[in-house]
Amino acid sequence: MNTGEQQLNGFIHRFVPADAQSQTAEQETLPILLLLHGTGGSENDLLELGQMLVPSAALLSPRGKVLENGMARFFRRLAEGVFDVPDLKLRTDELVDFITAASAAYHFDPAHVIAVGYSNGANIAACTLLLRPGVLSAAVLLRPMVPLIPEPLPDLTGTPVFISAGQMDPIVLPRETERLEILLQQCGAAVTTCWHRGGHALSHEDVDQAKAWLSAQVSR
Ligand code: MLT
User: Fold this and answer.
1) Rounded to whole angstroms, how far apart are CA atoms 91 and 97?
2) Residues enclosing ligand 1, CB less than 6 A?
3) For the whole model, what pTM was predicted?
4) Domain spanning 6-218: which CATH class is it, in words?
5) pLDDT attached to residue 5
6) What is the dihedral angle through the alpha carbons of 191, 147, 118, 88, rounded to the nearest 10 degrees?
């Protein structure tokens, strides 16, 4: 198993192959989880979460290329919650190119990539859904915002999206979560939203609910 730090298309990343030992016929449809960390995170942050969410799935975990005061992010922002839209678009395309390159390098089917993003990582995952429909087969968005509103809206008919939000989140206010939920529904996505009493930080509840939701997607 090769899990060391690697570079592909300029992305430092980790790739953990699917656990061949526990592959069964049923598990041949296991997804590749694209793990996207929050501001100040790294390619290592969400590996454990990914393993908990879909045990034995392959994990692809890039580090955001943008630095904000030394903290890694997936795109530039002008202020808290105010995004640099041209940079966001460029970085979204870069991420999609990275997925394509990784699928060739690690021999996985790009049609089975499910994003699992937290905060800034959830925002670029949401942007990938909105700007590059068809790249992600599903997405788990933990504490996401509306990254942008594309015109025209993309067709995301039937794309499963799980949103996990904190009622007391000071960074992503409940109305922002609701805006994203409505936007994705307008695009035709099958959105499931779970609310938690907590704030921006993740809890066991997030993990348990995301795991149950993913298990239903994987066994379809
Ligand atoms: C963002 O910039 O993507 C959001 O404000 C979330 C964050 O990283 O704080």
Assistant:
1) 10
2) 38-39, 77, 80-81, 119-120, 123, 145, 171
3) 0.95
4) alpha beta
5) 65
6) 140
